[in-house]
Design a protein that fits this description.
The protein is an alpha+beta fold. 42% of the residues lie in helices and 18% in strands. The protein has a three-stranded antiparallel β-sheet with strand order 3-5-4. The chain has a two-stranded antiparallel ribbon with strand order 1-2.
């Protein structure tokens, strides 16, 4: 469950799993392959689906647009929002 100011924030399960991987590696680049391996082990997903999950997370974070940064859809990282 994701909380913001004590209130539950609705977030789909795979978006939450993706966010958790990024938070665990806060301040570091997380390669696309690492995200896929940790969130969808042994499952093929389209690259656009991963981009959609990152987009959804950005929407949930709302007022922290720079919290997740992407580099040519090959990697992502989460900044100080998670701290």
């Amino acid at each position: 469950m994701l909380l913001h100011n004590g209130a539950a924030v609705p977030i789909p399960p795979k978006d939450l799993e993706t966010l958790l991987v990024l938070v665990e590696r806060a301040g570091h680049i997380v390669e696309k392959d690492e995200l896929l391996q940790k969130v969808w082990p042994g499952v093929f997903i389209e690259e656009g689906n991963l981009a959609r999950h990152v987009f959804n997370i950005r929407q949930v974070l709302g007022d922290a647009p720079a919290a997740i940064t992407s580099r040519r859809s090959q990697s992502a990282g989460i900044g100080s929002w998670a701290r």
